[in-house]
User: What shape does this take?
Amino acid sequence: MKVVILCGGLGTRISEETKYKPKPMVKIGQYPILEHIINIYVKNGFKEFILASGYKSQMIKNYFKKKKIKGTKIKTVFTGKNSLTGGRIKKLKKYFEKNEKFMVTYGDGLSNINIKKLLKFHEKHKKIATMTVIHPPARFGEAILNKNDFLVKFEEKPQVNQGWINGGFFVFNYEIFNFIKHEYIMLEKEPIKSLVKRKQIKVFKHHGFWKCMDTLRDKIQLNTMLKKNKAPWL
Assistant: This one.
């Protein structure tokens, strides 16, 4: 089964790094975050990857020409500099056969998700799409007080227990291409809304580790985890 990784965005919120390189090529430890994401799938038995590139596409292509990950087949496909997430997927249609299922995720999110379990969930429910959802980490620490205003518990950036957000790590059937009309369409808007309306999307709840590298602060946090040997995605 092929895995599509969306690697084409400008990464403006981490412009300190993306001025010189595409966001998926920002390093966590010795390797780009993109390589870490690929290894999450490799660990789960997936070997064939399509990197849907855009901004500074050639850097990604050159890296994987030189860097070989054992047993994998990695293809970088330029999907337009200004295409949106849905459009990038649409442009890859020719790489799939009818009735073929495939994975999609973003080029900036790390997790200890069980991809095999996700796939089994998708196959069991027989819908066009499955989206992984996660509880977002709280932005600030949580303080719990007693009735006399003494601090009884403090947890730095706990995982929020209420509400779910899109964590990426999708599974799609070939029919997803019918829901994406053009390259300037976001997967997360009209296509997902249409799937919801037709009851053709299920959510896979992931309760474990998940973190998106959205800002420089996120990058620093991920690097700190790695240095302390507390990197759950490995």
Q: What stands out?
A: The radius of gyration is 18 Å. The mean pLDDT is 92.
